[in-house]
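Subject: for your reference before the review

Hello V.,

The reviewers asked for a structural picture of the protein, and I figured it would be easier to keep everything in one thread rather than splitting it across files. Below is the amino acid sequence we used in the manuscript, unchanged from the supplementary table.
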Amino acid sequence: MASEVHLLFGPRLSVALHGLYENLREVHLSVAIRDLRHRITFQNLSLTPDGQGGGTEVWTDIVDTPTVWAKIKPRSAAQRFYSQQIKMDVSHEIVVRFRSDLREGMRIVHEGRFFQIHGIRNEDEKRFFTYLDCMEGVAS
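And here is what came back from the structure prediction:
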């Protein structure tokens, strides 16, 4: 492929295209667009006034592009005994195309399941994908 590009476009463009190809190949190895096959919705916890000086906490979809494609990957599971009950904690890594509007404490909804965002990573600071460390369960 490199020699064909070199013949068609000359040496300078050939080197530039080869570098671009290598960068795309490196990114493609970590997450492929075809892996983003789960439809998720981002939500914020907001306070709705009750008219008497107080309010009710309500989960609402974020305003700008709340629903996106994602890759959901289970990471670990653990049982613990809490308040006379056995509680199951399941952690997941959720990957979406790069977004700068996500915050810890937000919630993700996928097919009736809830994931609380605990960590946000931008791998190698390349701004291609956002990696979300989440805990499954109802966010309070």
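For the response letter, the relevant points are probably these. The chain has a mean pLDDT of 80. The radius of gyration is 21 Å.

Happy to draft the paragraph if you're swamped.

O.
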